[in-house]
C-alpha cells in the first residue's frame, strides 16, 4: 500500500460531522417520532465521502503525478470490507440459529453485499425501506454502503479521465455538479407518490449527494485553504457555517422521509447545505473545525462506520424479542448501548487491526495460531469462532426457503392478496359470502346487518387496513378502501383530498392509521379540516415492537376528546394479551385476529 501523501491533512472536524450524521440516523431508526428527519444523516455521510475521496485523489495526482488505482482499492478494501463481511456473516448465522423467518433470499443478500450491489437487489425484490413490519431485515440499511462501494469502484477512473480531458478544475466541478443535478432531477421526475423506496435505494437517484461533495473538492481543496484569515473572512466563514448547521438541525427536526418535497429536489438542496458545512469545517481559518473537534465527537466519529453498520442487526434482533412499545426510552437506551459496545469491539479488534494487516500472511497466521506449542490461544479461539460463524452462515444460505418471498412471508402474502381483492371490491359491489353472513348473524342484530349492507363508508389506512380490508368489505359492501403499506398519518390529508376529488369520500370515515409513526396536532388539524363534520372512526394501534405505540394511542385518545365527531375504536385494549390473534410481527392480525378486528369495528360503527 502506498505511503501517506505529504501534503494531506487530517481534518479533525470531520469526525464531528460524522457524529452529527450518525446521531441523526440512529435516532431516526430507534425513536423516529423524536427526529423524523434523521434519515438525512445519510446525505451528510455521502457528501463527506465524496469530498474526502476526491480531495485525496487530486492531492495524489498533484504530488505524485499519477493516481494509483491499486493502492486506492486496497485502502478502501482494508477500511470497509472486513467489518461489512463480519456483520453480514454474523447476522446470517444468528438468523440461521434464532430467526429463520428472515432466511428468505439470504443467499442473494450475502452475495449482493459482497459485491456492493445490495441496493439493486432490494429494488429488484421490491423491498420497502418504509414498511416496518412483516420480517423487517437487519440488512435494510446496507443500501447506502453499496452505493458508496459502487462510487469507490468507478470514481478514481473517472477522476483520471476528467483530469486528462479538462484542464480547469472549476470546469470539472461544474461538470460533476451537472451530473448531481441530473441525478436529483431524475428523483424528482420519477416520484409520483406512494412508496418511494425505488428512489431511496437507487444509485442513479441518490448519487447526487456524493457528486456534490466531489465537485466541492475541485474548487475547495483542503491543502490550499489558508490557515490565517482576517477577522472579516472568519466571521463570514462562521456565518455560513452557522446557517448551514441550523438548516441541517431544523431539517432533522421537521422533515419526513415520505414528504413529497424531499424527493422534489428537497434532498438535493439539503445536500448543498451539507456541502456548505463540509466546506466551512474543512477551512482551517474558521472556527467550525474547532467546534466539531472534541473527545466525544472524535470517539463517535471514528466509530461511526461500525455504529451505522451494526445498528439494524441490534434493533431488529432486539425488538423481535422485546416489546419496546411500553418502555420506549428505556429500550432505546439499551439498544444504543448495545450498538456502541459492539461498535467499540469491532473498531478495536477488527477494523483497526485489519486495516493494517498484511493479508499475504493470512495462511501463516492461521497455521501459527493452531500449532500445538503456540502461545496464541486468544487468536486460536477467535479464528475458531470465526470459522464456526462462517459455517453456520453458509448452512443458513443452503437452508434458504425455495418459495418466493411473498409466500415465505405470510404478512406480505396476505396483504398482496387482499390489496388485489380490495381493488376489485372498490370497482364493484362486494357481496358477503354465506360464511360471513352466518358470522354476522351471530355477532350483529338483523337491523345492524341491514344497516351495514347499505352504509356508504370510506376506509383509509396503512398495512393493518390492507391486511383486514376484504373482511371489512364483506360486512360493509359499500366501503371504499384506500390502504397503503408504510403510510403515515401526515400523508392522510392528501389522501383524503384525492378521495374527495374523486367522489369516494363518504360521510362516514374509518381511519386505521398510526402503525408506522406518531403524529402531531397540526397533522390532526389538517385531517379534520378535510373531513369537516363527517363521522370519523379511528382505530388505535397495537405495535408493541415500536417505540411510538403509546404516544400514537394517546394522540388518538386526545383527538377523540377534542373533536366530538371522532370516535375511538380501542383495538389496542381489545387485542392486548392475545398474541394468537397476530402474525409473528405482533402487529398484523392473522385470520383469527382479522375476525376479531372486523367484529370490533362493526360493533362500534353500527351501535
Automatic annotation (TrEMBL):
Membrane disposition: Multi-pass membrane protein
Transmembrane segments: 12-31, 37-58, 79-97, 149-166, 173-193, 205-223, 235-255, 261-284, 296-317, 329-350, 381-399
GO CC, one annotated term: plasma membrane
GO biological process per UniProt: lipopolysaccharide biosynthetic process
Matches recorded under Pfam families: Acyl_transf_3
Subcellular location: Cell membrane
UniProt main location, coarse: membrane
UniProt entry tagged with the keyword Membrane: yes
Acyltransferase domain boundaries: 12-342
GO molecular function: acyltransferase activity, transferring groups other than amino-acyl groups
PANTHER family reported in the protein's UniProt record: ACETYLTRANSFERASE (PTHR23028), ACYL_TRANSF_3 DOMAIN-CONTAINING PROTEIN (PTHR23028:SF53)
Name by which UniProt lists this protein: Acyltransferase
Amino acid at each position: 500500500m502506498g505511503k501517506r501523501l505529504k501534503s494531506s491533512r487530517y481534518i479533525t472536524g470531520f469526525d464531528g460531522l460524522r457524529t452529527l450524521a450518525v446521531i441523526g440516523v440512529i435516532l431516526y431508526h430507534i425513536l423516529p417520532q423524536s427526529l423524523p428527519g434523521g434519515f438525512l444523516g445519510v446525505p451528510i455521510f455521502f457528501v463527506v465521502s465524496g469530498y474526502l475521496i476526491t480531495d485525496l485523489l487530486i492531492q495524489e495526482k498533484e504530488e505524485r503525478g499519477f493516481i494509483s488505482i491499486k493502492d486506492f482499492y486496497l485502502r478502501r478494501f482494508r477500511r470497509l470490507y472486513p467489518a461489512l463481511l463480519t456483520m453480514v456473516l454474523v447476522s446470517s448465522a444468528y438468523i440461521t440459529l434464532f430467526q429463520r423467518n428472515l432466511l428468505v433470499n439470504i443467499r442473494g443478500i450475502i452475495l449482493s453485499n459482497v459485491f456492493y450491489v445490495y441496493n439493486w437487489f432490494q429494488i429488484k425484490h421490491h423491498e420497502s425501506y418504509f414498511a416496518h413490519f412483516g420480517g423487517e431485515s437487519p440488512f435494510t440499511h446496507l443500501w447506502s454502503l453499496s452505493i458508496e462501494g459502487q462510487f469507490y469502484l468507478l470514481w478514481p477512473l473517472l477522476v483520471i479521465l476528467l483530469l486528462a480531458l479538462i484542464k480547469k478544475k472549476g470546469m470539472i466541478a461544474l461538470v460533476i455538479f451537472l451530473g448531481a443535478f441530473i441525478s436529483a432531477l431524475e428523483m424528482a421526475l420519477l416520484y409520483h407518490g406512494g412508496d418511494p423506496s425505488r428512489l431511496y435505494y437507487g444509485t442513479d437517484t441518490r448519487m447526487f449527494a456524493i457528486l456534490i461533495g466531489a465537485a466541492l473538492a475541485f474548487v475547495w481543496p483542503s491543502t490550499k485553504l489558508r490557515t490565517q484569515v482576517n477577522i472579516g473572512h472568519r466571521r463570514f466563514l462562521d456565518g455560513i457555517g452557522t446557517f448551514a448547521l441550523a438548516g441541517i438541525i431544523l431539517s432533522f427536526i421537521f422533515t419526513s422521509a415520505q414528504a413529497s418535497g424531499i424527493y422534489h429536489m428537497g434532498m438535493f438542496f439539503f445536500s448543498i447545505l451539507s456541502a456548505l458545512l463540509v466546506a466551512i469545517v474543512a477551512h482551517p481559518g474558521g472556527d467550525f473545525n474547532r467546534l466539531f473537534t472534541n473527545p466525544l465527537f472524535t470517539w463517535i466519529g471514528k466509530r461511526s462506520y461500525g455504529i451505522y453498520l451494526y445498528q439494524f442487526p441490534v434493533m431488529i434482533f432486539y425488538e423481535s424479542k422485546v416489546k419496546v412499545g411500553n418502555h420506549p426510552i428505556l429500550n432505546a437506551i439499551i439498544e444504543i448501548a448495545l450498538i456502541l459496545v459492539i461498535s467499540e469491539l469491532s473498531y478495536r479488534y477488527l477494523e483497526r487491526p485489519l486495516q493494517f494487516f498484511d493479508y499475504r500472511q493470512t495462511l501463516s497466521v492461521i497455521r501459527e495460531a493452531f500449532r500445538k506449542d503456540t502461545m496464541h490461544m486468544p487468536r486460536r479461539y477467535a479464528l475458531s469462532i470465526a470459522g464456526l460463524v462462517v459455517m453456520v452462515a453458509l448452512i443458513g444460505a443452503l437452508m434458504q426457503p425455495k418459495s418466493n418471498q411473498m409466500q415465505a412471508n405470510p404478512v406480505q402474502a396476505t396483504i398482496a392478496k387482499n390489496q388485489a381483492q380490495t381493488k376489485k371490491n372498490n370497482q364493484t359491489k362486494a357481496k358477503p359470502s354465506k360464511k360471513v353472513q352466518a358470522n354476522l348473524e351471530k355477532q350483529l342484530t338483523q337491523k345492524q346487518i341491514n344497516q351495514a349492507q347499505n352504509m356508504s363508508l370510506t376506509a383509509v389506512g396503512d398495512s393493518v387496513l390492507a391486511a383486514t380490508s376484504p373482511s371489512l368489505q364483506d360486512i360493509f359492501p359499500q366501503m371504499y378502501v384506500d390502504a397503503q403499506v408504510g403510510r403515515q398519518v401526515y400523508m392522510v390529508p392528501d389522501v383524503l383530498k384525492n378521495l374527495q376529488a374523486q367522489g369516494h369520500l363518504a360521510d362516514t370515515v374509518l381511519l386505521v392509521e398510526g402503525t408506522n409513526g406518531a403524529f402531531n396536532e397540526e397533522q390532526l388539524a389538517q385531517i379534520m379540516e378535510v373531513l369537516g363534520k363527517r363521522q370519523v372512526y379511528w382505530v388505535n394501534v397495537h405495535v408493541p415492537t415500536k417505540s411510538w405505540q403509546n404516544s400514537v394511542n394517546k394522540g388518538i385518545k386526545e383527538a377523540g376528546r377534542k373533536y366530538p365527531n371522532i370516535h375511538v375504536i380501542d383495538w389496542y385494549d381489545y387485542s392486548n394479551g392475545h398474541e394468537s390473534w397476530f402474525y409473528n410481527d405482533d402487529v398484523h392480525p392473522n385470520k383469527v385476529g382479522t375476525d376479531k378486528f372486523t367484529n370490533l369495528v362493526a360493533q362500534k360503527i353500527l351501535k
